[in-house]
C-alpha cells in the first residue's frame, strides 16, 4: 500500500499520559539515532524487549482512535504470527503480501498483514506510526478506500488482539538483485479489514463500554476470544439457529462448530 522508500524521517512531538502501562512513552518523540547508527539488534523481534515495544506502540495507538472505541481489545505478542511475519520479511518481496497459507494460524485462520519498507534502518515506532497516520485519510462510518487506509484499519481493528512482527535487510526483490532496503512485516490475528466493514473497524462509544468488567486501565478490553470464525455468516447462523450450528454430537455438527468457533464458544467475549 505504501510505495515509497523512506531515507529520512521526522516525528513531531506531543505528550499524552494515558496509564502506568505506557509510563513516559512519547509516541512522537524525535529519535536519537537513525540509519546506519541503529544497531540491527535494536530492531530484531527475537528479543523480548523489542516484542514488548511493538505491542506497547500498537496498544497506545489503539487508545487514540477518534471517535473513541467501546470494544477495542488489548493486544499481545503471538509467537506463531511473528514467525510467519519474519519468514515473509526474509523473502524480500517488498510491498507484496504473503498468501493466505503463509499467514495461517491454527486458532484464527489467515491473519492480516502490514508491510513497511525503508532504504535505511528506522525504529519500529516509525514504521508503526506510518501505518497509523493513514488515519488522516479515514472517515469513520463511511465507505473508505482500503488501499489508502488499510494499514490503519488493520492496526485498530477491535477484534484483532495478537500481533507478531519481523524485519530483515534485503538486497533483492524476489529473484532480482538491487539496492539495499529494510523490510518490516507485522501479522495481525484474527484478521481485520473485513469486506463492507472497513469504515467501522470498531464499535463507536466510550472506552471499555463493551467490556466494563474486563477493562484494562480504562482504555482497552481484555475479554478476548481465542478463536475466529471461518465462515462469513456465523453470526447470522448463530442468531437464528444456535443449537444446530453448535451441535457437537455429530461429525457434521462438529464441523460447523469448528468453522464458527467464535460464535459458538465466545459468548460475552469480543470477536467479529
UniProtKB/TrEMBL annotation:
Principal cellular location given in the protein's record: secreted
Record InterPro entries: Allrgn_V5/Tpx1_CS, CAP_dom, CAP_sf, Crisp-like_dom, CRISP-related, Cysteine_rich_secretory, V5_allergen-like
Keywords: Secreted
PROSITE patterns: CRISP_1 (PS01009)
Gene3D superfamilies: CAP, Crisp domain
Compartmental location: Secreted
Any Pfam family: Crisp
GO CC annotation: extracellular region
Occurrences of domain SCP (ranges): 49-196
Protein name: SCP domain-containing protein
Amino acid at each position: 500500500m505504501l510505495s515509497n522508500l523512506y531515507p529520512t524521517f521526522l516525528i513531531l512531538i506531543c505528550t499524552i499520559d494515558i496509564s502506568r502501562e505506557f509510563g513516559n512513552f512519547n509516541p512522537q518523540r524525535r529519535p536519537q539515532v537513525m540509519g546506519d547508527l541503529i544497531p540491527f539488534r535494536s530492531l530484531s523481534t527475537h528479543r523480548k524487549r523489542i516484542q514488548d515495544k511493538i505491542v506497547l506502540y500498537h496498544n497506545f495507538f489503539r487508545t487514540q482512535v477518534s471517535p473513541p472505541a467501546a470494544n477495542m481489545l488489548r493486544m499481545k505478542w503471538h509467537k506463531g504470527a511473528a514467525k510467519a511475519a519474519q519468514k515473509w520479511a526474509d523473502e524480500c518481496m517488498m510491498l507484496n503480501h504473503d498468501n493466505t497459507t503463509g499467514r495461517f494460524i491454527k486458532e484464527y485462520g489467515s491473519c492480516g498483514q502490514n508491510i513497511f519498507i525503508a532504504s535505511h534502518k528506522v525504529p519500529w515506532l516509525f514504521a508503526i506510526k506510518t501505518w497509523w497516520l493513514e488515519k488522516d485519510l479515514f472517515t469513520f462510518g463511511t465507505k473508505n478506500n482500503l488501499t489508502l487506509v488499510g494499514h490503519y484499519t488493520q492496526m485498530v481493528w477491535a477484534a484483532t488482539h495478537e500481533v507478531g512482527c519481523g524485519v530483515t535487510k534485503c538486497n533483492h526483490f524476489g529473484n532480482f538483485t538491487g539496492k539495499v532496503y529494510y523490510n518490516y512485516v507485522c501479522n495481525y490475528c484474527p484478521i481485520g479489514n473485513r469486506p463492507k466493514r472497513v469504515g467501522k473497524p470498531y464499535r463507536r462509544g466510550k472506552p471499555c463500554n463493551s467490556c466494563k468488567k474486563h477493562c484494562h486501565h480504562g482504555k482497552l478490553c481484555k475479554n478476548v476470544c481465542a478463536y475466529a470464525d471461518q465462515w462469513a455468516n456465523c453470526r447470522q447462523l448463530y442468531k437464528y439457529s444456535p443449537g444446530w450450528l453448535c451441535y457437537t454430537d455429530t461429525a457434521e455438527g462438529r464441523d460447523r462448530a469448528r468453522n464458527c468457533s467464535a460464535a459458538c464458544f465466545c459468548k460475552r467475549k469480543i470477536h467479529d
